[in-house]
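Reopening: structure tokens for the nicotinamide-adenine-dinucleotide complex, inputs below.
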Amino acid sequence: SIPKKTVQRLLLYYRSLNFLLQQGIKNISSKSLAGLMEIRDSQVRKDLSYFGHLGKRGAGYDVLELRDKIARILGIEQVKNVCIIGMGSLGSALAAYKGFAALGFKVRAVFDNASHKVGRKIRGYECRPMEAMEKIIRQEDIEIAVLTVPADAAQEIAVRLEKCGIKAILNFAPVKLSLSRRVKVSNVDLAMEIKTLSFFIK
Amino acid sequence: SIPKKTVQRLLLYYRSLNFLLQQGIKNISSKSLAGLMEIRDSQVRKDLSYFGHLGKRGAGYDVLELRDKIARILGIEQVKNVCIIGMGSLGSALAAYKGFAALGFKVRAVFDNASHKVGRKIRGYECRPMEAMEKIIRQEDIEIAVLTVPADAAQEIAVRLEKCGIKAILNFAPVKLSLSRRVKVSNVDLAMEIKTLSFFIK
Ligand SMILES: NC(=O)c1ccc[n+]([C@@H]2O[C@H](COP(=O)([O-])OP(=O)(O)OC[C@H]3O[C@@H](n4cnc5c(N)ncnc54)[C@H](O)[C@@H]3O)[C@@H](O)[C@H]2O)c1
Ligand SMILES: NC(=O)c1ccc[n+]([C@@H]2O[C@H](COP(=O)([O-])OP(=O)(O)OC[C@H]3O[C@@H](n4cnc5c(N)ncnc54)[C@H](O)[C@@H]3O)[C@@H](O)[C@H]2O)c1
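Re-run output (same inputs, fresh job):
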């Protein structure tokens, strides 16, 4: 199976190759691609080897062909349905973010438990009550939930999401979610990011 | 030097130990601490070995003593001055986030180049013009800049930040910043997070 770090780099390859196409560059060696991304040449070859032989030895890569191949591997064209739970400051900023739609993520529904928010439009989405969450996730075939609720509410909601068959959760609450392996969880802990960053500037 | 992954886990130890203190637990073995955090027992011992011998063999760790030791290592008490550049949806959500202040990060100034934002209060902070950025960073002794501007504006601002002596940048724009090693950069790429997450739910 493919390491998570390799998958993360694939998106960087995809962006770099798009940048090269905009510059009108048709062909590139693994060495130059590595230079552009500031990673080692051997890393480029190792990453791409997971996906079959993509370049010709000594002739480098065809930029358009490599970009399209990576787009297929990443499923750039695929649309994945997403919902956002907790339409506070972070949830509503994420709802407004065009970068998700550009990668094929379509926000299909947003939820909150605050009575003054439910039934109103936030960032163009009608805010739905938490009681309707399970029904709407099934109806809209939603695979990914973005969790932007307070830390003390996150676990209980995550268990409900698991029960209604959600496939993955992008969790912003600073708590570890305890769920079965059936649900993929990715935690984004912004407080940890800034704390780690500051640790190294002693 | 200490691996970044270990530093990130330190914050998780800090949170877990606080949780134990709230539950009134005074002592814990590395095995139970590992269980609480869902990591291997050997990882706990390895992480804590970077910081000297913290527990007594066979007697486990004193929860309060370990928490305070980790707080000192992380510099939880230290206040670090932060500024936010780009007060759009994400920047203003981050400005409002109480989780940063709880870890000693104080937002000292916020900046934007939109004339209808400059001079007005956003989330309680007076939005300052970009022309004043260098002066205010020096005046307020700001060490960390949070960059929440569009991708095409990020590099130019990052170079200005480097020139005025910023120590670290938490970058949310989906571009790689080219700076000297003097500035520590941490990239949070939310589009990459969700794309990587969805890759594994094929
Ligand atoms: N704002 C940020 O920049 C930021 C940064 C890092 C992490 N976070 C984390 O993201 C989460 C959201 O932060 P925020 O700043 O947007 O908070 P917020 O208070 O602005 O928003 C939280 C939202 O969740 C809703 N909510 C509360 N309990 C709920 C429940 N049981 N079910 C459904 N909805 C519920 C509230 O009504 C509110 O709209 C928090 O866990 C926070 O720690 C936020
Ligand atoms: N909104 C999100 O949830 C989200 C998620 C992931 C990544 N991002 C990234 O974070 C950044 C900000 O996103 P956003 O959604 O808040 O965008 P936004 O358009 O709401 O905010 C951008 C802000 O930057 C200001 N700005 C533009 N050019 C500037 C310049 N040269 N100098 C100073 N200020 C300038 C604008 O006036 C605006 O206030 C983008 O790079 C985006 O890709 C946002």
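The beta strands of chain A are 27-28, 61-62, 80-85, 105-112, 121-122, 125-129, 144-147, 168-171, 184-187. The CA atoms of residues 22 and 142 of chain A lie 34 Å apart. Marking as resolved unless the reporter disagrees.
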